[in-house]
Amino acid sequence: xxxxxxxxxxxxxxxxxxxxxxxxxxxxxxxxxxxxxxxxxxxxxxxxxxxxxxxxxxxxxxxxxxxxxxxxxxxxxxxxxxxxxxxxxxxxxxxxxxxxxxxxxxxxxxxxxxxxxxxxxxxxxxxxxxxxxxxxx
Length: 137
Prior knowledge:
- This protein has 1 helix and 5 strands, in the order αβββββ.
- The chain is elongated.
- The chain folds into 2 domains: 1-50; 68-137, Single Sheet (S-adenosyl-L-methionine-dependent methyltransferases), CATH 2.20.130.
- The protein has one helix at residues 2-41; strands spanning 74-78, 83-89, 92-99, 106-109, 118-120.
């Protein structure tokens, strides 16, 4: 019967030690936060004579060409048999859509930009990563 009393005594000592450790950690964290907040308030004061910021520049959208910038110019040529639509970016031809009188339309696409066109039956076949021109040097 002596063993349960000893384990209870050891448990009480551990509980007291744990409680003292928790109190010490809380006190230490409170003191550290107090010191850091005092350091923040002790920073240099704001100067009295501040100049206001200049107004932002006026936004000029430029001349309105009637066509949004995100859409490429399209040239549509109607002849007796097929309708040919040419898509250009920066004046460079990159895609041609041919719509015959009979049958589905097909596309001629310049994937590499070298002027060699490849026929595709639709635009959704194959994966092509975007190759947008952000800036030319």
